[in-house]
Write a structure and sequence with these properties.
Layout: E1 7-10, H1 17-29, E2 34-37, H2 44-60, E3 64-68, H3 71-76, E4 81-84, H4 91-98, E5 102-107, H5 110-118, E6 123-126, H6 142-152, E7 157-160, H7 168-172, E8 178-181, H8 183-186, H9 190-200
Parallel strand pairs: 1-2, 1-8, 2-3, 3-4, 4-5, 5-6, 6-7, 7-8
Helix pairs in contact: 1-2
Length: 205
């Protein structure tokens, strides 16, 4: 399994293919090394077609590509891994299909985090830590809950949900492995936001 970066860039839904590729290439050029293709709107066929192009793009920049939700698409385009929610294919079954590729699990409670860890996930996303407009992810869990999860599981924990330049330092101080972000990079100046995230997480030093 490839080593995962401390920043996972989550692609926003609702973009056309050109917009998607442009945004992803922008953050890759700035130093992001892990992209998770997440699309909750478009058809599965379009997601597959876009994923093929994202695979080419991420290979060009030597970056990891994960596919959200769709284990079959991850296999079909030779992505580095898949990220699954609580209502997606069970972790145990996904592992049978995807082998030793990266599997991440979205978790929203301590029990879900422990189950993912004990079930063999390579990392977990935990949140939302703060309020987020990117998706309807439920009640914010807060930094104290994040600390508890970090101390209970022995795999990388990525904080997700409402993380921005304003609160990133407090998130990092919990001891979590890293963060998964979308609007945190894209809202405002993408260049300065990304530079700040990379610097604070000590990436590419």
């Amino acid at each position: 399994m490839k080593n995962i970066s401390k920043i996972c860039f989550l692609t926003p839904s609702g973009l056309n293919t050109d917009e998607l590729l442009q945004i992803v290439e922008t953050v890759l050029q700035l130093g992001i090394k892990w992209v998770q293709y997440r699309d909750k709107i478009d058809s599965k066929r379009l997601i597959y077609d876009n994923a093929i192009q994202l695979r080419k793009l991420t290979k060009t920049y030597k970056a990891i590509l994960s596919i959200n939700d769709y284990t079959d698409i991850a296999i079909a385009i030779d992505a580095d891994g898949v990220h699954l929610g609580q209502e997606d294919l069970p972790l145990k079954e996904a592992r049978k299909i995807i082998g030793d590729k990266i599997i991440g699990i979205s978790t929203h409670s301590i029990s879900e985090a422990i189950n993912a860890y004990e079930g063999g996930a390579n990392y977990i996303g935990f949140g939302p830590i703060f309020y987020t407009t990117t998706k309807d992810a439920g009640t914010p869990k807060g930094l104290e809950e994040l600390k508890k999860v970090v101390n209970l599981v022995k795999i990388p924990v990525l904080a997700i949900g409402g993380i921005s330049v304003e609160n990133l330092k407090s998130v990092v101080e919990t001891g979590c492995y890293g963060v998964a972000v979308s609007s945190g990079l894209l809202k405002g100046d993408v260049n300065s936001n990304t530079t700040y995230f990379l610097k604070l997480l000590k990436i590419n030093d």
